[in-house]
Here is the input.
Amino acid sequence: MTLQEQAQFSGDLEELERDGYLILPDLIGGDALLQLREQLEPWLVRTPRCEGDFYGWKTTRVGGLLSKAPIVQRLVMAPQILAIAEALLRPSCDCIQLNLTQATRVHPGERAQAPHRDEEMWPWPTAGRHWLINVMWAVSDFTAENGATRLWPGSHRRALDRGEAEATSIAGEMRAGSALVFLGSLTHGAGANRTQAPRTGIIVSYCLGWLKTYENQFLAYPAEVAREFPDALQRLIGYQMHRPNLGGWEGQDPIQYLRGAPACGPHRDALPPDIAAELKALMASSGD
Here is the structure.
């Protein structure tokens, strides 16, 4: 990074930590945005609407976007976004992972979603650490009238209140091609769509590498699909071992499974440096 880029990045992190959200305008546009819309539309049209008081009754959701709409791979691997996710999540894990990709279309007449926090999916206190980073990519313009994500600034620093008044929230308004980044600990919810047209976005989220992901990546992208992804994306969806020894395959890094390695090799330690050094010293002191 240049000094100017480093200053911008530091400012973005400071804003995200302070307010709980950050809007990055116009990250994609032109042909890329058009291609994104074209690849998503058939899936949004054929998929039935949601059923539930959380997912909504006039909302369409589509997962597994890395293969259904391949241009989403570009969003997931966006360097500016990954740098933010790494900076906030890596202090609490050995490696980060993709939590989900999901297209969301809020149709006219949909009510506002209940205030919630996405970290609620893991029923354990986070002790103030970041477990999840969300990115809402605007496929269409997001406005207060058409259901832009409602955000309660600073709510990540206080206990969850599902009765938060909408008047104390703001709408995450942004142009198509922009990205709203927000903490998994921030209270938020899709807004009501009071217009005659749908609003469409894509949620991409990243979480700590030792958590169970919202979307089962191995069903969304089985080996025959994942083998076609770039190496970095294969690892991000879970084909990597998280030290110490989590998520292995026959004692190996699961990336080896995609590469056709035999399943009868030796189990090899995958330990953090501090634990590896501790065990090495202990074995050396035993004298055996």
